[in-house]
Design a protein that fits this description.
Elements: E1 6-9, E2 13-16, H1 20-27, H2 29-32, H3 54-74, H4 81-92, H5 102-108, H6 115-129, H7 135-142, H8 148-154, H9 160-173, H10 182-187, E3 189-192, E4 195-199, H11 203-221, H12 224-245, H13 254-261, H14 266-271, H15 273-279, H16 284-294, H17 300-310, E5 316-320, H18 326-339, E6 351-358, E7 369-371, E8 377-379, H19 380-383, H20 388-392, E9 396-403
Parallel strand pairs: 4-7
Antiparallel strand pairs: 1-2, 3-4, 5-9, 6-9, 7-8
Helix pairs in contact: 3-4, 3-9, 4-7, 4-8, 5-12, 6-7, 9-11, 12-17
């Protein structure tokens, strides 16, 4: 069988699959599942074009990794063929542990287990199936391989994951503020003292990258309507699980039902193969099929919330710098109790508060190093003459108030 395939990607053009092992990994059911998981969850309710998948994103990140390794090799850095394949596998599989509508899922029915944990677990299972050929890739992914810079290309401030998702998400949403000079940034990459650094002449491209990331967070990932949809879906899953754990029979696919009716802690999940196999069968269709059916359930809260999502009648969301006024929240709660057949406790499904945070750059989290012309290394916030970058390094915390429309 010919495994030298070429994929036509709308963002980068033609992408080549570099080795037979990588082709076999792409063909594996664990990876093929990513075709049916949207990269941006509910964002298509705001930006209708945002229907690209985690499968798209993983292939794009793989492509960028190939460009980065080529650049570093051309600058004289020693990267063996085995290391090149391993770091390519690490970036290809970096999101394999994501579930459908990942953030809503992690808050509700797969609690306390991060997608990074699940990615590691699935990579270990793949390593068994491929007779240990992923061992180096797993070491690079976990940061235990002796060449630190390879891990930084997979998970760091300038990793190929961020490079692709900013590019791809801006492409499919149509939000041009997210466009970055990925090709120039990659050409400016270098390695100093086993860490990734960016040559000084690439500094303005890095500034643009950080600003684009901040703008994409507020304009796309933390857009208030996206927040409204994700909060609504999280409440739907939370309510369904609450009912299922109390013995109510709800429609669900076998994979979804497994997580609705079982309380699974992290140790159990990591050590019982049944849980990971059920998770590896979950995708967007499991969730949306259930939501469509649950809209006709006799539980008022569940049917109401599902009906709201199906009709895109989302929560009203107010984002503020200060906590919402408690008296105003109490007034909204009273209105819900008068409007719907719910008690005080169930009113929380329709009126609630939460907190969101965002920082485009964390200097302590593997800082972006700039290789100056004199050979010294400086953090981007020091090397740049753009004072806004220091502001980007601060965590922005905002408060949200969600309530059903028609109360005010």
């Amino acid at each position: 069988m010919n495994k030298k395939k070429i994929i036509n990607d709308p963002v980068y053009g033609f992408i080549s699959i570099p080795t037979e092992l990588i082709f076999d990994l792409i063909e594996h059911p664990y990876f093929q599942r990513l075709r049916y998981i949207k990269q941006l969850g509910m964002t298509h309710l705001v930006y209708p074009g945002a229907l690209h998948t985690r499968f798209h994103h993983a292939l794009g990140a793989m492509h960028l990794m190939g460009l980065a390794i080529e650049t570093l090799c051309n600058k004289g850095h020693d990267i063996t063929d085995e290391e090149e394949e391993a770091v390519t596998i690490a970036i290809l599989l970096h999101d394999i542990g994501h579930g459908p509508f990942s953030h809503a899922l992690e808050q509700t029915i797969v609690v306390g287990i991060s997608h990074e944990d699940i990615s590691t677990l699935l990579m270990n299972k793949l390593n068994e199936q491929f007779h240990g050929r992923l061992s180096m890739a797993i070491q690079i992914f976990n940061g235990t391989y002796h060449k630190v810079f390879l891990h930084e290309l997979v998970s760091g401030q300038l990793d190929m994951d961020r490079m692709d998702y900013l590019n791809r998400d801006s492409f499919f949403t149509g939000v041009s503020e997210g466009v970055i000079s990925f090709d120039r940034i990659i050409k400016m990459l270098n390695v100093v003292d086993d860490h990734i650094a960016v040559e000084e002449k690439g500094i303005y491209s890095i500034e643009k990258f950080l600003i684009a990331r901040r703008l994409m967070y507020w304009q796309v990932y933390l857009h208030k309507t996206v927040i409204a949809a994700e909060q609504l879906l999280a409440n739907i899953l939370r309510r369904a699980r609450e009912l299922a754990l109390n013995g109510k029979k709800l429609f669900a696919t076998p994979a979804l039902n497994h997580f609705l009716i079982n309380r699974i802690n992290k140790d159990e999940f990591m050590n019982d193969a049944h849980h990971i196999e059920a998770f590896a069968s979950l995708d967007d269709t499991d969730i949306m099929a259930a939501v469509k059916v649950w809209a006709g359930e006799d539980d008022f809260v569940l049917s109401q919330l599902c009906g709201m999502l199906m009709q895109r009648n989302l929560y009203q969301v107010e984002i503020t710098n200060d906590p919402p006024d408690k008296d105003f929240v109490a007034q909204l709660t009273d209105k819900v109790i008068r409007k719907y057949p719910v008690g005080g406790q169930d009113a929380d499904w329709f009126v609630f508060t939460d907190v969101i945070t965002n920082n485009a750059y964390k200097p302590g989290d593997g800082s972006i190093r700039i290789l100056m012309k004199d050979g010294s290394i400086q953090d981007i916030t020091v090397a740049s003459d753009n004072s806004n970058l220091e502001v980007l390094a601060k965590t922005v915390k905002k408060y949200i108030l969600c309530y059903i429309k028609g109360l005010v």
